[in-house]
Amino acid sequence: MVLAIFSVVTYVVSIVLGPVLFFTTKAGLTEAARSLHILPVEVFMLLEVPVYLPLGLSHGALFAGIMIIFILCIGAAALTCGGFIKSLRESLSKPISVAKTNFLYIMPLVGTALLYATILISDFQATQGIQTGSLNFPAQTSPYNILLNLAYAPIDEEFAFRITTIGIPLALFLLVAYRSDPHLNGVKKRIGFLLLTLFSPELAKSRLGHKTVAANGLIHGISVLEWLLITVSSVMFGAAHYLAGSGWDIGKVSTAALAGFVFAVMYVSYGAYADILLHWYFDYYFTVLDMASTAYGGALNAFATVTEAVNLVIGPIVLIVFLLVTVLKLGDYLTWRAIGGSPKPSGRFTEPPNFQLSYRVAPTKCWLTSNIRRIVVHPKLYSTILYAKEP
């Protein structure tokens, strides 16, 4: 709860700091006055479509438009799954669940864990002689031009690698599979459904009664087609960073692919605002805090230092807890598969039919999963196992 509140405050501050830096500093105003006549828009991973602007577009207007998109994304994230306040209230009584817990609440957990995971991978690769490299700009590039590029990247790259690459094929599949559904009668409804799928695959699938992450869990709620698209787009996202020749070395492929995978899972579980915000967290969030720290110093320097430290400290904790929960659930699944039980979409397990258990009860509260669990001794396996008690 404390991490969520602290993180949201820092998100809001960073959104405010961007325009303040861009439109109140001399270097920022110089960059804002520059004009743009061609806006590159990427679609389907590697296809770049140049959008010509006959009247031109100032860098300042482009930056302002990007900030509006980020604000809308934060607003959408705050309203999902009953809202941010509801998730705060339920934080001590209900477990965190993807597509059920508000995204703005879960974003700091996902972001910090992913950040630390990429650091671990990069450090390990460096010990093996595999360098990650760094993003390079020409020596005379203005810091505000860099800020503009890093602000545009989350929108452009998510549109290319997630929204069009995953959203459009999924929408076409659903339109064909559910072509007789009354929600898809008529051209207008089909176009509206296509746009809804691009915005939120989860909402689109829910409207048709298709399996969703909220109803069926992360594994079963994402279809085989979606997992295939997620995997392909993630691998291509990793490769694109290296092949772009922007300073990244071969080691960037693995970390970018991992990030792309997480972005994609959040996209299909929540919507376009989720992967854009996670990408924003890596590209814009820390950059603008560092720039504000350099430009203004004082309290902002302390604020930026504390913010970065909190993100780095929380990351490994969240990552360890996530791995422990994953191992625990995997152990449950494998054990019950071995004795003939079956998993439910909720992630809980049922006892096998006509099965007699001999057990001793030791109810405990597991803080990792918030489920009351019992210790059961299976007479055939002669081992102690854990399974979730049905409510």
Describe the model.
It is a single chain. The protein is α+β, with helices and mostly antiparallel strands and 391 residues long. It has 2 domains: 2-296, no CATH class; 329-388, no CATH class. 64% of the residues lie in helices and 11% in strands. The protein has helices at 2-24, 26-33, 59-79, 84-89, 103-127, 143-177, 187-199, 201-208, 213-221, 224-243, 252-269, 272-296, 298-338; strands at residues 35-43, 47-58, 342-343, 349-350, 358-359, 364-365, 372-378, 383-388. Strands 5, 6, 7 and 8 form a 4-stranded antiparallel sheet that branches. The protein has a two-stranded antiparallel ribbon with strand order 1-2. A two-stranded antiparallel ribbon has the order 3-4. α6 packs across α11 (252-269), α6 (143-177) packs antiparallel against α12 and α10 packs antiparallel against α11 (252-269).
